[in-house]
Amino acid sequence: MVPLFDLTRQYQLLKAELEPVVLAQLESGGYVLGPIMDELEAQCAQELGVSHTVGVANGTDALQISLRALGLKAGDEIITTPFSFYSAAEVVADLGAVPIFVDIEADTLNIDPRQVEAAITPRTRGLIPVHIFGLPANMDALRAIAKKHDLFIIEDCAQAWGASLNGHAAGSMSEAGTFSFFPTKNLGACGEGGLISTNSAQVAEKCRQLRVHGQSRRYFYDEIGYNSRLHTLQAAILKVKMPHARDWNASRRRHAAHYAQLLEGTPYALPVETPGAYHVYHQYTLRVPQELGREHIMKTLAERGIGHAIYYPHPLHLQPVFDHLGYKPGSLPISETACEEVLSLPIFPELREDEVEQVAAALKAAL
Ligand SMILES: Cc1ncc(COP(=O)(O)O)c(C=O)c1O
């Protein structure tokens, strides 16, 4: 038996550190924003190497609020990846703008900058690359395109806390970065949470305003906003957890290296790490060539009690909600094939070496 993830292991290790902090916060009576939030935001800004961070209720709101802060309007177009969680495309559409999907790179599974330029129209306002599974997208190429066409970039870093490219943290390489503190993320709260990072004082100010209903000063409203504060109790928890995140990411990388060593020479296509990238393996996702039959491999894993998942089984451009955009099967073939082949294995910091060995043995047995 190897679980896909197990949050109780981390809790047991952190219990002595976490519980007094949570109790002290409860005793304090300070339950909304407050000094602990300011401290967490400063700590996150320092860790990411940006001037400002703004805590919000979740990673989806972080995307929506940063899009608003960067001035997205109804009818604008945002170019993004079809191989990701739904949020980025969802919030673009929710704001009355149009998600434009372009294909991914077969090896990194990240948005392919070569496809981006061809998709730019006079209505394009920005790009949302997702650092998928913790591997930074090709930001140098994306930034060059954005600069040439006067577009903004929001990095969706929900899966990439602590990842970097040539020494620059994910979330520091564009107009804004958005993070999720969903419990299973590399840095996870004990509930929902999110964060926006930016080097622009103006964008940060706008995000702060939008997270409290768009109010400019107490009970004065300039625009429609959101009720989207990061919970103070979660901020207190994250303040304890954040200093551990580098070690946790290092453990994930050790597990990934172990998987790579054990699976070398098999027909599985293993995750890649591009030059200059520090991959934080939010997921360890390999590809099962179609002739091997992913269903058959998953059956063997299930028989041995080994957790596994398909992230993602269906690309965003073919979701019913986007039917009206006119994409058809075959429109973005690399993403579609990836959805047929990907398989994510157990990876979390507290996973044991013998568990990695059990997973690899099951994958080999399935062949
Ligand atoms: C790539 C990506 N973007 C956005 C989100 C949304 O984050 P949240 O669940 O905190 O709203 C997630 C997480 O689920 C994600 O994986």
Structure characterization notes:
By secondary structure, the protein is an alpha/beta fold. The protein folds into two domains: 7-102 and 112-243, 3-Layer(aba) Sandwich (Aspartate Aminotransferase, domain 2); 244-365, Aspartate Aminotransferase, domain 1 (Alpha-Beta Complex). Helix content is 39%, strand content 14%. The chain has twelve helices and 14 strands. Strand 4 (124-128), helix 6 and strand 5 (152-156) form a beta-alpha-beta unit. Helix 1 crosses helix 8 and helix 9 runs parallel beside helix 12 (353-365). The protein binds pyridoxal-5'-phosphate. Pyridoxal-5'-phosphate (PLP) is lined by residues 58-60, 84-85, 87, 130, 156, 158-159, 180, 182, 192, 194.
Task: Detail the topology: elements first, then pairings.
Layout: H1 7-28, H2 35-48, E1 52-56, H3 59-69, E2 77-80, H4 87-94, E3 98-101, H5 113-116, E4 124-128, H6 139-149, E5 152-156, E6 164-165, E7 168-169, E8 176-180, E9 194-198, H7 201-211, E10 215-217, E11 220-221, H8 232-241, H9 245-263, E12 277-278, E13 284-287, H10 294-303, H11 333-341, E14 342-345, H12 353-365
Parallel strand pairs: 2-3, 2-4, 4-5, 5-8
Antiparallel strand pairs: 1-9, 6-7, 6-12, 8-9, 10-11, 13-14
Helix pairs in contact: 1-8, 2-8, 3-4, 3-7, 9-12
The protein binds pyridoxal-5'-phosphate.
